[in-house]
Design brief:
CATH architecture of the largest domain: Up-down Bundle
CATH superfamily of the largest domain: GntR ligand-binding domain-like
Order of helices and strands: HEHHEEHHEEHHHH
Number of domains: 2
Shape: globular
CATH class of the largest domain: Mainly Alpha
Helix content: 55-70%
Structural class: mainly alpha
Distance between the termini: 50 Å
């Protein structure tokens, strides 16, 4: 028998995932006011799971509570972008260095597999070049998680996961920036090769540069279009 509490948590988790996806794909835009009735329709749930989802999203920095005026999608800004970026560079570089130190052959196999899957498809959708392929997104996230999976610190991994999620909100904006050629596939390959070679200095420098390039593209977008 499924407990009522388990059902409630499942509905809240589903509501959370749908609302966050709507922010990622642009259906819910930065700064947009969020109405419970609209979110109930979006998530096909009652007000309670939506309220729980919003509390979680607010704690993670995706939404904001404006006093008695309700919730809104957290706005984007250059200051927030670079604050997230700098902290992510520091923490994931340290996590990667620790993974290179502690990782065994099972970690290497996981990383090889994640990188292989990532290289087997393009980032952009074939039918809509200005949209991100969601399967690529899942493989991309799995690759970056595999890089730092062996760091042996659950706390560090938790912070990295939070920053990655917040950075991802900005990163998805970068695909719409035209005339800024970038070979993301090669960037991933170089990070992967340095990591497998146990060259921590090179791997961490490449990872930080990888994040920096994305932030620069998003910064350009925010400067001229947002």
């Amino acid at each position: 028998m499924i407990a009522i509490g388990d059902v409630s948590r499942t509905l809240a988790d589903e509501a959370y995932a749908r609302i966050r996806e709507a922010m990622h794909n642009g259906q819910l835009k930065p700064g947009q006011k969020l109405r419970f009735s609209d979110l109930q329709e979006l998530t096909d749930t009652s007000v309670t799971p939506v309220r729980e989802a919003l509390a979680r999203l607010t704690a993670e920095g995706f939404t904001e509570l404006e006093g008695h005026r309700g919730y809104r999608v957290a706005p984007v800004s250059q200051a927030d972008l670079w604050d997230i970026l700098r902290n992510r560079q520091r923490l994931e570089a340290e996590a990667l260095r620790l993974s290179i130190t502690h990782g065994d052959e099972h970690w290497e196999a996981q990383l090889v597999g994640a990188h292989h899957l990532l290289t087997r498809m393009d980032r952009e959708r074939a039918d809509l070049p200005t949209a991100v392929d969601e399967e690529w997104e899942r493989r991309h996230e799995a690759f970056h998680e595999a890089l730092i999976a062996a760091c042996q610190s659950r706390v560090l991994l938790g912070f990295c996961s939070q920053l990655s999620a917040r950075a991802n909100r900005y990163r998805r904006l970068s695909i719409s920036v035209p005339d800024m050629p970038r070979d993301v596939r090669s960037e991933h390959r170089l990070i992967f090769e340095a990591t497998i070679d146990r060259d921590a200095d090179t791997a961490t420098a490449l990872l930080q540069e990888h994040f920096e390039k994305t932030a620069q593209m998003v910064d350009e977008l925010l400067r001229h279009r947002w």
